[in-house]
């Protein structure tokens, strides 16, 4: 039996990355900043620019935006939840196709109240629950809670550092979800691992397809790192080809 042909979502940080994703035929992007710390909420300027560029290319809804107020864990204060709600509203008003969020309670369960507030702020655009699920203790219970809340998609590695190592859990999640929400494999996804992840029955794969390049000039003391990440067109194109290949694992 042929394996599912999953969507390809590429994590990007700028308009140039969006251009790469559009050119290689990706299904959508997750826009964020600070990929080096797992991603944070991007500026409203970048959100507006990417949304406008995608719309001009005939791809409304192409941009999903990560809304995460800080690096570190996923247990948030009331002020951080309020900030997240405000950022979701701003992203929605800018025309994004969806938001990517996640929050846990102190005992590593889905923070139902916070997630419900995020969904309410999204007002009908797509809501993805990110890899906070991988920091929880029971992925199946988390999945059930997210289905009940009405989340559209969950990004997960199956609780492992690499999605490939968590493919048995991903397969179990895909079976349990039974199409009620999308299971998207993310975390250490490489071009080489995509065919095997397809066999797990996931609905989508997520990768950054990034490479580091040197800065255009000296940074100096306090100027930051001497390199930054860009979206690699060759890796992104290979990922899309692997997802749509007719080859079986």
UniProtKB/TrEMBL annotation:
InterPro entries: CutC-like, CutC-like_dom_sf. Keywords: Cytoplasm. The keyword Cytoplasm applies. GO terms for cellular component: cytoplasm. One of its GO terms (molecular function) is copper ion binding. The keyword Translocase does not apply. Its main location: cytoplasm. It is found in: Cytoplasm. SUPFAM superfamilies: CutC-like (SSF110395). Signal peptide: none annotated. It comes from the Bacteria. Pfam families: CutC. Belongs to the CutC family. This is PF03932 family protein CutC. It comes from Glaciibacter psychrotolerans.
